[in-house]
Amino acid sequence: MVDRETYQGFSRKLVLAFDVGTTFSGVSYCVLDPGEVPHIQRVSRYPAQEHVGGDSKIPSILYYDRNQQVRAMGAEARQESIVEQAEMEGWTKLEWWKMHLRSKHLSAAHIKDSDIPPLPTGVSALQVLADFMGYLYHCAKTYIIESHANGPSLFASFGDSIEYVLSHPNGWEGVQQKQIRRAAVMAGLVPDEGREAQERIRLVTEGEASLHYCVANVLASDTWSRLPIEKLELDSGSLEAEEAEKGGVIVVDAGGGTIDLSAYYMHSGTATGKAISFEEIAPTECRLQGSVWVTRRGHDFLEKKLEGSRFAEQDYINQMTEVFDTSTKLRFTSPDDSCYIKFGTMRDKEPSYDVRGGQLRLHGKDIATLFEPSIQSVVDAVERQKAASQITISHVFLVGGFAASDYLFKQLQARLSRLGMSLCRPDSHTNKAVADGAISFYIDHLVATRAARFFYGKSANVLYNKRDHEHRLRRHKKYTSLDGTNVLPDCFWIILSKGTRVSEVKEFSQSFVRERVRKESLYQIDVDLIVYRGMSTRPTWIDDEESEYTELCTVYADTSSIAKNLRKKKNGGFTFYQLEFDIILLFGLTELQAQVRWLEKGFEKRSPATIVYNDEI
């Protein structure tokens, strides 16, 4: 458990955490009062929500009218009157829309764009996210005002001291993070995209948020004391060069759209076993195999099974799919048992298609095949993280909405036990792991070191060496630079290697030399950063696996103060200007940060740099 200290701030502050999920969403919050111990609370009452208390999530559903205006959201969108009005007035229902925001690098063979319900004409995924976050804010504000003593004055006392923690899947990258921040501005959570306003927004991966939830609710010190003691030789990117005192764990957040896996071990300092910090011990994993893809496979299975029957019409299939999603899928426990989808009346029957009395009978083994890709993807990801870790991982914790499936849990429990790993599932509120954990991330900030997911670097020119076989193979690319040297392009210069454990304060620097004929061309510099996503452990040449190298972002910096004082250089009859500078990168935070560094009259100077991602949405 986490022993929290009193809040040391000078004024009251409200922290809101939004867990915007593929199928369900929720909000947790914390009122920070000076001198008081922070306490995480949940918004457990929403408009039109029938069940309050234990169920503190709402469906991630929206209706848009023909004028691209949002008309209903959350539990309200499931009201019979809303459904009737939507049909009469031609509204568009949006489900699973979060998947439109996914990174293109998370694409999988089993997913086609047609598998995701389309967006209304003229409405972007960014706009949907902004509309939904604005709705969550309104719900949270109403709940706090109605649930706390002197609620209106309490909420008014926060003023502009409201900060937000916004979570996203492990596999989302800089582009998606930028879109989340932009949506927060569109939703009115913060006034603009300026630095001061954006500092009120913290981003956290769903995997890391889940780890914080498990520490606060599951991983008590007695749990850690039962983990195997291992010695870990920490590399230079680690927080401390010491022995790891406890075994590693993997936290699996099984949600609606993605399954996120993160591996950690705990630094323990005192005899009580109180956690000081956690360190990632393997690159995070993110698989597009959440519960909605079981439903999607169920839809396709029903189409095939009922082909040729009078129930093959899409209206019947959609009705059966909804029952499968909300009932049959959750109750399924064994491939040896039959399951039923009730969709009609006693007069609806076609025995040759297993339809009797308004029910469709499904064989358990057929339903098991719908779960199999999701189950196996978790096992594969666990094996990858176990292989990548230098410390033994023996425990796995399963959280998230999909974790409520007993069949998923039992299958993972059996298969992971064969790998020498035990599986634990918290006994309550696993669907709130991300929102609660996001608040804990803000308050407790337990993870101080993270593992690099990829190889990060840049395309570089290297001096041509005719004795090097790889250089001779590329001699047709050789050219002469402004300073007269022969160089080869397209060498992958690694700045950070995959799997390296990086603390939040660890800086990675890369020196650059830019040569231009005109001095003004050096007043602003830009550096493209590249990611290698392949399987090689020593990627060197971009043309070896060109498809595995993708542009991550471009770092821009104002270097006019350096460039204006440059003196001309000569090479034969040519004159040019040469600028020397370093790019400083911080990879240990949830978001990448950059600075530019240079020497001016023998003194080090620094300036913030801007990171720009290519839009994918």
From TrEMBL:
InterPro entries: ATPase_NBD. It comes from the Eukaryota. PANTHER family: ALPHA KINASE/ELONGATION FACTOR 2 KINASE, HEAT SHOCK 70 KDA PROTEIN 12A. This is Actin-like ATPase domain-containing protein. It comes from Coniophora puteana (strain RWD-64-598) (Brown rot fungus).
